[in-house]
Amino acid sequence: MSEIAGPELVGCRRPMLVGRLPADRLVEVWTRCASRTVKYGFRLAYADLEPPRTGIFNGLEIVIDPDVPFEMQCFVLLHLFGHSVQWVAPALADVVEALQTTTEMPAFMQALHQYELQAGRLGMQLLHEAGVRDLDDWYSDFVATDWRYVERFYQTGSIPPWEECLTQAGDTLAPKAIPPLEHRQVEVRYAF
pLDDT tens digit string along 115-146? Predict the structure, then answer.
């Protein structure tokens, strides 16, 4: 009887990728994605943000707290790019409107999940346009972890420990094409 290699085992999952990217890859991701973000017309800045904020956006600018670990900064850039697009792309207004007008908790959570997932898919598109096509699982895991974090916050009313929310994505996110943008200032929104 021959031994079965790990990847051939049924149910064998790949290792958790969040928190494990080497620094040289993170620098590449940041440089390429920051450049693409600016080419889409969004300004990037660093500022000391009041905890627990990791980043903020207003439709014109994405601001990231420099005290956030660099891997998280890369994720926040991609994710807040996605949210920024949602707020200034007329074609995506329905998802933003659903988030703002839904009042019953189960329906709100569903609208919030769609909003977060769409932002993740737009961030994946940016990652691909930046020429980074081998980190889909890493980014998908980050989006899944972020959703677990946000979901727990809305369920409990308190910010959960990030480490308790680490998870793997069930599926790799599909990128979503970035529609035409109409840059305008919107109410400041934030990531935490």
Answer: 999 999 999 999 999 999 999 999 999 999 99
Q: Is the dihedral of CA 26, 29, 30, 31 positive or negative?
A: positive
User: Is 16 inside any structural domain?
Assistant: no
Measured CA to CA, the distance from residue 42 to residue 109 in angstroms comes to 28
Number of domains in the chain: 1
Q: At a CB cut-off of 8 Å and minimum separation 6, what does 111 contact?
A: 95, 98, 99, 102
Q: CA-to-CA distance for 169 and 79, rounded, in angstroms? A: 15
Neighbour count for residue 142 (Cβ, 10 Å): 28
Containing structural domain, residue 162: 25-178
Q: Is the pTM value of this prediction over 0.85?
A: yes
Structural domain includes residue 6? no
Q: Which of 110, 130, 168 is nearest to 35 (CA)?
A: 130
Give the pLDDT band (50/70/90) at residue 12: very low
